[in-house]
């Protein structure tokens, strides 16, 4: 009798264990992986492939783009589509359309295309706020690298407010990431785990050492700003003011390392010849601490203050030149296209 009771209890325990296993199956992936999968699922239909052709019918540029509106507007990099004759856009489901270039900003490297939305399942991307990004945050690059088709790579936000000179263009306020970016990714999406576009993948920096894992993206905020200007018909993109310097953000650590006279501000790395700063006596090595009466403590704030002005306006720029504080009156100019 006792043995039967023991056997019955054991059978009940086994049945309960089996029920637990059945009702709580082990997940195939972690919570973090699930967030990545969901983010990709959300954005994948909003990323397109772009093939640009020269007037001679030769392939000129391979890139990616992001659906910006339900009317068929697409954001990409200017360097992907400028100086091309034919632009073909391929959507996630394989449908193809001819893209018409509305306009572009060479300085900001942003362009807007338009395709006929007829017959398409248009899914505009959701754009997030890049100012809320934090170092170490997970991001995903989605695009068409090296003609492999829709590809996703994952990494983190490796740096913020990066400034890089490429040929005659200075890219400002870039997002740095170690998510793999290659030729063909340009114009594609850098998204957060909510599936929101936080950047436009733009370039890879390898330098002389051939370094890897240094991709850069234009912030979603700047891309939307320029794209909306284009859609409002502001053809001379930017009709925004320009000071004509290459800025570096000063941190307390940087100030201590180089014994700078202040622990905040904008270090003038270089000055564009014949630009506003050059014409009014701002020189490399100066430190800008105020624009008018507003303290400048980041590159983002510097850009915002300058670009909120109109070309032709005068501003007061307070600088440390050596250990001497100067207030320089500068007439801003139109930033080149």
3D structure, described in words:
This protein has 337 residues and is of the alpha+beta class. It folds into 3 domains: 42-114, Trypsin-like serine proteases (Thrombin, subunit H); 130-231, Beta Barrel (Thrombin, subunit H); 241-334, PDZ domain (Pdz3 Domain). Helices cover 21% and strands 37% of the residues. It has helices at residues 2-23, 31-43, 78-81, 220-231, 252-257, 276-279, 299-307, and strands at residues 47-53, 59-67, 73-76, 86-90, 96-98, 100-105, 110-114, 138-143, 151-166, 169-177, 189-191, 197-204, 215-219, 241-242, 245-249, 266-271, 287-291, 294-295, 314-321, 324-331, 333-334. The strands form 4 sheets. The chain has a 7-stranded antiparallel β-sheet with strand order 5-4-1-2-3-7-6. β2 and β3 (73-76) form a beta hairpin. It is globular, with a radius of gyration of 26 Å.
């Amino acid at each position: 009798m006792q043995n039967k009771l023991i056997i019955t209890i054991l059978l009940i325990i086994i049945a309960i264990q089996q029920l637990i296993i059945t009702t709580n199956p082990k997940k195939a992936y972690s919570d973090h992986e699930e967030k990545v999968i969901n983010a990709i699922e959300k954005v994948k239909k909003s990323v397109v492939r772009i093939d640009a052709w020269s007037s001679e019918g030769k392939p000129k540029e391979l890139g990616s783009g992001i659906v910006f509106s339900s009317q068929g507007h697409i954001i990409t990099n200017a360097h992907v589509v400028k100086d091309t004759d034919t632009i073909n856009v391929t959507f996630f489901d394989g449908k193809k359309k001819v893209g018409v270039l509305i306009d572009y900003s060479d300085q900001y490297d942003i362009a807007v295309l338009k395709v006929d939305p007829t017959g398409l399942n248009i899914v505009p991307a959701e754009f997030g706020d890049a100012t809320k990004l934090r170092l170490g945050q997970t991001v995903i690059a989605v695009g068409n690298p090296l003609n492999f088709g829709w590809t996703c790579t994952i990494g983190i936000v490796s740096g913020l407010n990066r400034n890089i000179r490429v040929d005659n263009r200075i890219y400002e306020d870039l997002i740095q990431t170690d998510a793999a970016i290659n030729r063909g990714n340009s114009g594609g999406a850098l998204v957060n785990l909510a599936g929101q576009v936080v950047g436009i993948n733009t370039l890879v920096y390898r330098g002389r050492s051939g370094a890897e894992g240094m991709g850069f993206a234009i912030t979603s905020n700047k891309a939307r700003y320029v794209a909306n200007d284009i859609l409002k018909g502001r053809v001379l993109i930017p009709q925004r003011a320009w000071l004509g310097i290459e800025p570096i953000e000063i941190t307390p650590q940087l100030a201590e390392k180089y014994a700078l006279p202040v622990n905040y501000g904008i270090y003038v790395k270089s000055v564009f010849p014949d630009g506003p700063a050059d014409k009014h006596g701002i020189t490399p090595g100066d430190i800008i601490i105020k624009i008018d009466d507003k303290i400048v403590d980041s590159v983002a704030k510097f850009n915002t203050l300058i670009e909120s002005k109109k070309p032709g306006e005068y501003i007061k720029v307070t600088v440390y030149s050596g250990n001497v504080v100067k207030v320089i009156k500068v007439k801003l100019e139109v930033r080149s296209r």
